[in-house]
Amino acid sequence: MKYPTAIYLDHAASSTLRESASKAMVEAWQKGPGNPASTHHAGRAQRRILEDARDKVASLLGAFPDEVVFTSGATEANNLALLGHAAAAGPNSPLIGSPVEHKSVLQVLCELAKAGHPLTLVSPNPEGIVPDLTCALPTGANPGTVTLQLANQETGALQPVGKLGKQLASTHPAWRLHTDATQAVGKIRVDFHSLFVHTLSLSGHKWGGPIGAGALLVRRGWPLRALCHGGEQQDGRRPGTESSMLAAALAVALSEAVADLDAFQTRASAFRQTILNTLKQNAVPYEINGSPEGLPHILNLSFGGIRADLLVMALDLEQVAISAGSACTSGSILPSSVLTSMGLSKDRILSSIRISLGHDTTPEIVDEALVRLIRVVRRLGGGGLS
Amino acid sequence: MKYPTAIYLDHAASSTLRESASKAMVEAWQKGPGNPASTHHAGRAQRRILEDARDKVASLLGAFPDEVVFTSGATEANNLALLGHAAAAGPNSPLIGSPVEHKSVLQVLCELAKAGHPLTLVSPNPEGIVPDLTCALPTGANPGTVTLQLANQETGALQPVGKLGKQLASTHPAWRLHTDATQAVGKIRVDFHSLFVHTLSLSGHKWGGPIGAGALLVRRGWPLRALCHGGEQQDGRRPGTESSMLAAALAVALSEAVADLDAFQTRASAFRQTILNTLKQNAVPYEINGSPEGLPHILNLSFGGIRADLLVMALDLEQVAISAGSACTSGSILPSSVLTSMGLSKDRILSSIRISLGHDTTPEIVDEALVRLIRVVRRLGGGGLS
Question: Is the pTM of the predicted complex or chain greater than 0.90?
Answer without folding.
Answer: yes
